[in-house]
Amino acid sequence: MRMVDLIEKKRNKEKLSKEEIDFIIKSYTAGEIPDYQMSALLMAIYFNKMDKEETLNLTLAMRDSGDILDLSEIKGIKVDKHSTGGVGDKTTLVLGPMLAACGLKLAKMSGRGLGHTGGTIDKMESIPGFKTSLSMEAFVKQVNELGIAITGQTGNLAPADKKIYALRDVTATVENISLIASSIMSKKLASGADSICLDVKVGSGAFMKTIEDAKKLASAMVEIGKGAGKSTIAIISEMDEPLGLAVGNSLEVREVIESLKGRGPKDLMELVYCLGSYMIKSAKPEVSLADARNMLEASITEGTALEKFKAFVKAQGGDENVANDYSLLNIAPRVIEVLSKEEGYVAHIQSDLVGHASMILGGGRQRKEDTIDYGVGIELNKKVSDKVLENELLAKIYVNDETNLASAIDDIYEAFRIEKEGIKEPVLIKEIVE
C-alpha cells in the first residue's frame, strides 16, 4: 500500500477499507508516514467525511495503537463517563461517589484541563495530598474495595490519537464529526470499561455550539461504542451558562462536597441524577430509571455518597477532613464582588467568558506547561431566569494575583445579559441518544 494512493482515494470521495485504515494508523504511529501526508489525508477527510463503518474502523485502529487496559480483575460491570467539556463541569466528582454508594464500579482515567478551568485531575489535586497517579494494581484494588478510583491517563493510551490530534490542531481539521468522535472514543474504548455514558455539551461554553452538531457527535459516538460491543448512551446537556455556581478548581471541589451534603445547585444535581440513572440501568438492566434515581437520591439523603467521597480521597492520599474543613482547600482570600448595574432578569450568561475570567486569574491553562492556581475562580450568585436588582451581587471573583483582575471583571459584566422581561428557566437535558 502507498499512502499517496490512499490520499487520492479519499480526495476522490471513495471509501477507505479497514485494512487501509489499519495501515495508515499503524504506519503513522510508527513514524513511517510523514506529517505532510497525514495532513493531506486529514484535510481530505475533513471535506469528504467518513461513513459509519470508516469512523468505527478508524476508532478501533487508534484504540489498538497502544495499551488497552485489562479491567477483568475488577468484579462486576465497570462503568465510565465522559464529558465533552464545559465551564463549571464537576459532574464526575459528584456522581462517582454516588454510583459507588449504589454498588457500581467506576474505574476512570481522566485528564488535565486546557483552556477554561482545570480538568478532573486538576480539581482533585487541589485537595492536599491527593495522588492522581496510581499503579494498575492499586487502581484495580481500589475499585474492587471502594467502587471508585480516578487516575491520570497512561502515557501509551491511544498514542495514535495524540499524534493525530496535535496535527489536526495546526492544520484546521479539528471540526469534523468522525475525527472528533474517533478521538474521544478511541481513548474510552482503550480504558476498558464495559459501559460508557457520554455527556455531550451544547451551547456557548461548549465545543458544539448547535443542537444539530451535538446530535451528530452524540450519534456518531454511540454508534462507535455499540460497534465495539460496549453499552453506550449519550445525554445532550446545555452549556449556555456555567454548570452549577462555581468555576475554578478549589471552588468546584467545595461545591462537590456541598452537593454530596444535599446542598448542590439545581442544574448540577439534575444532570448528575440523569447521567447516574442511565449508568445504573446499564449495569443493572432490571432496575428502572425511576428506581435508579431513587437509589441516587438515597445516597445523598442517607450520607453514603459523602462517606464514599471521604474514603475515596483518603485512599488516594488526600486529606479527608476537607469534607468538613474547607480552609484546607486554600481558596483565595481576596474576594471581589461584581454588582449589577441595572435591574431586570438574567437572560443569558456567556459560559466561555466566565471560563476565560477564571483562566486569566490562573484557574486554567492557556498552554499545557502553565501552572494552575487552585484557589482562584468565579462563584456565580445568579443564574439564567433569576431576577436581579440594581447593585445586587452577580458574582464573586476569588483572586490571588491581581494582574488580570480588571479584565476578569470586564469578562463577568460582558457575560451577563440582563433584560427587562423575564424568561423561562432553560431546559438542561436536551436529548437522550441511545
UniProtKB/TrEMBL annotation:
Pfam families per UniProt: Glycos_trans_3N, Glycos_transf_3, PYNP_C
Q: Which GO terms describe its cellular component?
A: cytosol
Question: What molecular function does GO assign, one term?
Answer: 1,4-alpha-oligoglucan phosphorylase activity
Top enzyme class:
transferase
Query: Which reaction(s) are listed as its catalytic activity?
Result: thymidine + phosphate = 2-deoxy-alpha-D-ribose 1-phosphate + thymine; 2'-deoxyuridine + phosphate = 2-deoxy-alpha-D-ribose 1-phosphate + uracil; uridine + phosphate = alpha-D-ribose 1-phosphate + uracil
What does this protein's UniProt record list under function?
Catalyzes phosphorolysis of the pyrimidine nucleosides uridine, thymidine and 2'-deoxyuridine with the formation of the corresponding pyrimidine base and ribose-1-phosphate.
Name of the featured protein: Pyrimidine-nucleoside phosphorylase
What is the protein's species of origin? Lachnospira pectinoschiza
Upper classification of the source organism reads: Bacteria, Bacillati, Bacillota, Clostridia, Lachnospirales
